[in-house]
């Protein structure tokens, strides 16, 4: 014997299955037959004995059934899923009955001209009314029964749906009607005043007020809000923080069209997910002109240094997405390179992929790559980027970030590469640390090499281009994965300073900008872009803790650890003396920076690299400060060099 629970599950599955259209049509025709009996016999004669049809009545009934069946096919009135019957289905049904009545009316006129009687006008009207009513009631009854049988409210999470416009109503209805839904909408939360007390499809409407959030959610015994992507901009601009501060869980449904039309609607819940910090970045996304990128990249040989890193690997993915002919992945990290190979072979089997293990400090090995593959484009992402670590490993920062960039750039020019795009950082502006200054020197070398090449009037010209980025969400060394790990371990979440701020973007945006820069750049440019408002890291930590359903300072402590060596409170995208030039993309600008003579740069770099090889950190940093006078060390042992240089300048002035 089946248990009550098993019977319930079987019944639910019966309701969940979609009845074939031919069966729906057959049921509709049975109801048309019942309508005939009511309209032509019982109502007219008020005598059940009239059900004994003669041949005339049988033929007349058969003709009526054929007409209704044909009009059902024309209007597709039986195509809808019955348990989701709505206004569109009712409209189709009304159209079917109206057209059927019109056809029957025309046939009756023809019969009358031939001297025969078929149907009177009143009989046709009554038939249409009964047919429309019976079929619509049948479908609404099945819908109501389905909803009653499938809404196990005790197993569903109670949620409030944000908004009271049509999309929010569609979302609430879809969740209510979903088989085995994970969510049960209990109210709509309107952002417009004066809606409290209204009711839509049985759901009460409450009006949002920042001071009454707790009261509203307590009233409906829930702590969960679900909203559509159309509300995301408002969420980014502070609305999300209001809900998070009240301990409300935020769920996002990315698109309404997933459950529109005749699609199976059982999967609505699968499109709902918890929002993350990327969703609440609070900055307008960067949209680049992808057709230009596609035109540039199609069929080209692309070499990416640092291809196993977070930025380099995304450049590789996008180069593959834009139909590059072949891609050379250059890196010294063998395991991540192998993982990239497996991913690319699976997702882009048509792309010719080559793995080339090399250190950018080894020019002889790099030459082999250029000799073997002759790349059209080089995207130089290989670099050391971790500020405190490079402050303690100064010589490696210079040998890789400066020496490695010089090696790659020189080979790009020697082997007639079309475009060389280097990825720099906002830390190169008014640098306060070894890493930032090393990237600024790399910028200087690449730019001076381009202008020297232009003056030499060589037949082939390589376009040397630089792009500056802020912090990248989810990249190696980003605070976001660090905070996630610390929250998962129960805290504390460590912030170096309460007032420290940073710019942020996503990895795909950053890499798309690299490719866009390759398109628009002619050579010598340093591209920056509008990253919106900077984010206070302390606020970012609080928001991430709340997104995890916890309370900052109660469940998870936020601990200030002090600024690290070389770290400053805020980053800049431009030097104080620099200006920008607009491009065709409103978010991308060209920095007007001081230009250096190539000979002067070489004269400064040669001893700097030699001192780095010998391990003379102080001598090397002095060379760096002479080449980049705006480099002022902070929280670092090299601050004494700044003092010494200042004293020397004073003595020279006095002398």
Explain what this protein looks like in three dimensions.
The protein has 655 residues and is an alpha/beta fold. It has three domains: 16-149, no CATH class; 151-274, NAD(P)-binding Rossmann-like Domain (Rossmann fold), CATH 3.40.50.720; 293-472 and 506-531 and 576-627, 3-Layer(aba) Sandwich (Rossmann fold). It contains 21 helices and 22 strands. A nine-stranded mixed beta sheet has the order 10-9-8-11-12-13-18-22-21, sandwiched between helices.
Give a topology summary.
Layout: H1 4-16, H2 21-45, H3 55-75, H4 87-113, H5 121-150, E1 157-162, H6 166-177, E2 183-190, E3 199-200, E4 203-207, H7 213-219, E5 224-228, H8 232-245, E6 249-253, E7 272-274, H9 290-297, E8 301-305, H10 310-321, E9 326-331, H11 334-347, E10 352-357, H12 363-373, E11 377-380, H13 387-392, H14 394-414, E12 419-425, H15 434-456, E13 463-469, E14 471-473, H16 479-488, E15 493-495, E16 501-502, E17 504-506, H17 507-520, E18 526-529, E19 535-536, H18 537-547, E20 558-560, E21 579-582, E22 588-592, H19 598-614, H20 617-627, H21 639-654
Parallel strand pairs: 1-2, 1-5, 2-4, 5-6, 8-9, 8-11, 9-10, 11-12, 12-13, 13-18, 14-17, 15-20
Antiparallel strand pairs: 3-4, 6-7, 16-19, 18-22, 21-22
Helix pairs in contact: 2-3, 2-5, 3-4, 4-5, 9-17, 10-17, 12-14, 14-15, 14-19, 15-20, 16-18, 19-20
């Amino acid at each position: 014997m089946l248990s009550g629970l098993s019977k319930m599950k079987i019944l639910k599955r019966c309701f969940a299955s979609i009845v074939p259209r031919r069966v729906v049509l057959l049921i509709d025709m049975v109801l048309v037959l019942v309508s005939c009996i009511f309209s032509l016999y019982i109502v007219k004669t008020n005598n059940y004995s009239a059900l004994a049809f003669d041949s005339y009545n049988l033929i007349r009934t058969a003709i009526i059934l054929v007409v209704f069946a044909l009009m059902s096919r024309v209007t597709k009135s039986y195509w809808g899923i019955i348990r989701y019957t709505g206004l569109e289905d009712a409209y189709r049904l009304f159209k079917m009955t109206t057209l059927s009545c019109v056809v029957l009316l025309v046939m009756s006129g023809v019969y009358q001209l031939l001297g025969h009687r078929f149907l009177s006008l009143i009989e046709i009207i009554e038939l249409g009314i009964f047919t429309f009513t019976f079929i619509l009631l049948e479908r609404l009854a099945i819908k109501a029964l389905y909803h009653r049988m499938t809404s196990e409210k005790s197993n569903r999470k109670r949620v409030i749906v944000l908004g009271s416009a049509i999309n929010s109503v569609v979302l609430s209805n879809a969740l209510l009607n979903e088989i085995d839904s994970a969510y049960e909408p209990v109210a709509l939360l309107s952002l417009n005043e004066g809606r409290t007390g209204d009711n839509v499809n049985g759901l009460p409407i409450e009006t949002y007020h920042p001071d009454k959030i707790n009261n509203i959610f307590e009233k409906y015994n829930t702590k969960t809000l679900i909203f559509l992507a159309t509300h995301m901009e408002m969420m980014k601009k502070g609305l999300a923080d209001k809900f998070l501060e009240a301990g409300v869980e935020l769920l996002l449904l990315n698109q309404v069209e997933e459950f529109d039309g005749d699609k199976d609607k059982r999967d609505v819940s699968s499109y709902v997910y918890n929002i993350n910090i990327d969703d609440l970045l609070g900055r307008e996304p960067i949209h680049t002109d992808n057709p230009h990128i596609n035109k540039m990249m199609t069929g080209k040989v692309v070499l990416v240094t640092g291809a196993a890193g977070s930025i380099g690997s995304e450049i590789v993915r996008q180069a593959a997405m834009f139909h590059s002919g072949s891609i050379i992945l250059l890196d010294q990290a063998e395991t991540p390179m192998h993982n990239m190979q497996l991913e690319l072979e699976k997702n882009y089997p048509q792309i010719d992929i080559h793995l080339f293990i090399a250190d950018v400090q080894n020019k002889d090995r790099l030459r082999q790559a250029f000799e073997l593959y002759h790349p059209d484009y080089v995207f130089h992402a290989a670099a050391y980027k971790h500020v405190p670590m490079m402050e303690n490993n100064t010589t490696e920062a210079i040998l890789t970030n400066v020496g490695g960039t010089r090696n790659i750039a020189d080979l790009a020019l020697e082997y007639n590469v079309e475009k060389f795009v280097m990825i720099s950082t906002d830390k190169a502006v008014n640098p306060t640390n070894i890493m930032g200054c090393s990237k600024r020197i790399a910028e200087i070398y690449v730019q001076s090499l381009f202008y020297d090449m232009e003056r030499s009037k060589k037949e082939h010209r390589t376009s040397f281009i630089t792009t500056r980025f802020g912090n990248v969400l989810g990249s190696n060394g980003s605070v976001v994965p660090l905070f996630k790990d610390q929250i998962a371990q129960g805290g504390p979440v460590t912030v170096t300073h309460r007032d420290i701020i940073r710019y942020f973007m996503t990895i795909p945006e950053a890499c798309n900008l690299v490719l866009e820069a390759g398109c628009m750049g002619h050579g010598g440019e340093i591209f920056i872009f509008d990253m919106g408002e900077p984010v206070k890291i302390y606020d970012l930590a609080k928001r991430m803790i709340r997104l995890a359903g916890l309370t900052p300072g109660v469940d998870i402590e936020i601990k200030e650890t002090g600024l690290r060596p070389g770290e400053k409170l805020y980053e800049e995208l431009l030097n104080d003396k620099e200006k920008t030039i607009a491009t065709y993309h409103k978010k991308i600008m060209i920095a007007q920076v001081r230009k250096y003579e190539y000979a002067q740069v070489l004269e400064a770099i040669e001893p700097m690299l030699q001192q780095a090889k010998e391990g003379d950190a102080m001598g090397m940093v002095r060379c760096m400060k002479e080449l980049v006078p705006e480099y002022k060390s902070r929280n670092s042992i090299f601050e004494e060099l700044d003092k010494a240089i200042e004293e020397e300048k004073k003595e020279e002035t006095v002398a």
